[in-house]
Structures are given as structure tokens and as C-alpha cells.
Specification:
Blueprint lengths: L1 H22 L16 H6 L6 E11 L4 E5 L4 E6 L14 E9 L7 E9 L2
Length: about 120
């Protein structure tokens, strides 16, 4: 009975080591085909769905329940900001913010950004 427990313990330990080793792999840092947008104009020119973006600018106006028009000075794009991502401090069209989100490009519709984070920029 002790031998079986020792065997099970050894197999579990080896499994844990293998799992840990697979998680600790290095990350690829070479060239990539992913898009790094620098501004809204670049997104509008060639939108790639699900591309993560970080942009600074202003929420110019509210156009729907959680929809706003955002501009970084290069162009304007519609953004969706869930209420949970809005800061407790009131913001206006004059407040500079940084948004983090994903480009959403659906067939036959203009691209927008699904915002996953919003902070006020001092």
C-alpha cells in the first residue's frame, strides 16, 4: 500500500514539474505580422478585428447608451465604454484620457473600439 502511494506521489510530482516547465517558456520577440496602430487614422485606414490598441485623446460626445466618439487628433472613431470602465471623477470632452481596448470590425459596419480600460491623463 505504501508503495502505491509513493508511486502516485512520484507521478503527481513529475506531472507538476512538467506543467510548470511548459508555463515557463520564453516569449517570441522577433518580427510579427500583428498590427501596431499609432493613431485612429491608421485604424480607420486598415482595421484588423481584435487588435489591441492603446490611444490617448478625448471622448468628444456620447452617441448611445455606452457609445462615444473618441478622437486622438488624427481622426474620430466610435468607442464602446462599459460604465464600469468610466472613472469616478466626471469627465468631459476637454478631459484627456487614455483608452485600452480592441478594434471591432464587423462586416458592412464601420470599425469601433471596445474599450477595456480608461484612465484620465494628467
Amino acid at each position: 500500500m505504501t508503495s502505491i502511494r509513493q508511486s502516485i506521489t512520484a507521478v503527481a510530482a513529475i506531472g507538476a514539474l512538467c506543467l510548470g516547465a511548459s508555463v515557463a517558456q520564453a516569449q517570441y520577440v522577433g518580427p510579427s505580422t500583428t498590427t501596431n496602430y499609432k493613431n485612429v487614422a491608421e485604424i480607420l485606414k486598415d482595421p484588423v478585428d481584435d487588435t489591441v490598441v492603446v490611444l490617448s485623446g478625448h471622448l468628444l460626445r456620447k452617441v448611445g447608451k455606452e457609445k462615444y466618439i473618441f478622437s486622438d487628433g488624427s481622426a474620430e472613431i466610435r468607442v464602446e465604454v462599459d460604465a464600469k470602465y468610466l472613472p469616478a471623477t466626471p469627465i468631459s470632452d476637454k478631459t484627456k484620457v487614455q483608452i485600452t481596448g480592441e478594434v471591432e470590425k464587423e462586416f458592412m459596419s464601420s470599425p469601433e473600439i471596445d474599450v477595456k480600460g480608461l484612465v484620465i491623463v494628467p
